Amino acid sequence: MRLTMLKAKLHKVTVTHAELEYEGSCAIDGALLDASGIREFEQVHIYNLANGERFTTYAIRAEEGSGVISMNGAAARKAAPGDRVIICAYAVLDEAELEGFEPVLLYFDGANRIVRRAGSIPKQAA
């Protein structure tokens, strides 16, 4: 059996730019791509906390250390500067690859700086 698993998550990054006339994609600070393991041109799913939009595009590398999260092309209609979004990448793994697998979960402050890294989501009290 092969399962689609969360590979990486950028939790609550802030959109810094929206470029409607740019070729479609999501530009992400290169240092954040490296920290998360998301590759340039990899498919990403974006969940907008401000308006509930959920959409799929691909990642491109923005300047290292810039904090840039730019929605480009049609994605610029789905998220605006100042919106907080969750960016996720997924991987298809077989049973053997699941052993010991943990996603890379990165959590951010309002300036798109990593404030916490994790390999699992904390359990919430019932």
From TrEMBL:
Membership in a protein family: Belongs to the PanD family.
Cofactor: how bound: Binds 1 pyruvoyl group covalently per subunit.
Protein's pathway: Cofactor biosynthesis; (R)-pantothenate biosynthesis; beta-alanine from L-aspartate: step 1/1
GO cellular component, one term: cytosol
Enzyme Commission number(s) from the entry: 4.1.1.11
Function: Catalyzes the pyruvoyl-dependent decarboxylation of aspartate to produce beta-alanine.
Record keywords: Autocatalytic cleavage, Cytoplasm, Decarboxylase, Lyase, Pantothenate biosynthesis, Pyruvate, Schiff base, Zymogen
Location relative to the cell: Cytoplasm
Transmembrane regions: none
Protein name: Aspartate 1-decarboxylase
Named cofactor requirement(s): pyruvate
Post-translational modification (record): Is synthesized initially as an inactive proenzyme, which is activated by self-cleavage at a specific serine bond to produce a beta-subunit with a hydroxyl group at its C-terminus and an alpha-subunit with a pyruvoyl group at its N-terminus.
Gene3D superfamilies in the record: 2.40.40.20
HAMAP family named among the record's database cross-references: PanD (MF_00446)
Recorded name of the encoding gene: panD
Catalytic activity: L-aspartate + H(+) = beta-alanine + CO2
